[in-house]
């Protein structure tokens, strides 16, 4: 590929990356009130952490049906779900099933793992020689997720050693040594269940995933998308933001980016 072509592709990526941050960029036609209501990255992280850590105590507290799985998963997954502790299941807020098969012995990372439901399933599917790491920024969720790890791995699954752990960190920076501290090129599979939409910097999430995946590694995700720009009152509504609607992935831009 020519130097000119590479430069052009680089510029296109920059343009499309900037579009992912459109919620932080003021539209010239936007009212002063709307501009003042825009959220910074830190604001969004705080709102999301507060919503999942303090507002929601179980899936019964959800105000919309956005954070719901529409259909039943594969029988193998359903069987694995029977072994997951009840408390973990009660605090599950995913919207699908991003868990692939054929993971025996692999290293798996779950973005925004929450109470850990998908991690517990993955722990079963990767086997004792595999490894599963859940990454979340919410203390309350991490506390629940960590509470059952030893009993699940050693008693329920009968493993001699624990293959499951949960780390506090931001999914936009998975290699941060003071956060998730996941080494570059060390992960076989990354999964995510209705979480990328919650990030104010989706391009950074994808870039961070790319950095930790080994050559040939794969990213499986279930998420919420929209086919047009959302109005300001939706993007800044705390409940809609918390329940995966306020910062929904813009479909065309997201799909374009992941194919580059």
TrEMBL record:
Residue ranges of every copy of the Methyltransferase domain listed in the record: 104-245
Keyword list, A-Z: S-adenosyl-L-methionine, Transferase
Catalytic activity: arsenic triglutathione + 3 [thioredoxin]-dithiol + 3 S-adenosyl-L-methionine = trimethylarsine + 3 [thioredoxin]-disulfide + 3 glutathione + 3 S-adenosyl-L-homocysteine + 3 H(+); arsenic triglutathione + 2 [thioredoxin]-dithiol + 2 S-adenosyl-L-methionine + H2O = dimethylarsinous acid + 2 [thioredoxin]-disulfide + 3 glutathione + 2 S-adenosyl-L-homocysteine + 2 H(+); arsenic triglutathione + [thioredoxin]-dithiol + S-adenosyl-L-methionine + 2 H2O = methylarsonous acid + [thioredoxin]-disulfide + 3 glutathione + S-adenosyl-L-homocysteine + H(+)
Domain of life assignment: Eukaryota
EC code: 2.1.1.137
An example molecular function term from Gene Ontology annotations: arsenite methyltransferase activity
Family assignment from sequence similarity: Belongs to the methyltransferase superfamily. Arsenite methyltransferase family.
Official protein name in the record: Arsenite methyltransferase
Biological source species: Reticulomyxa filosa
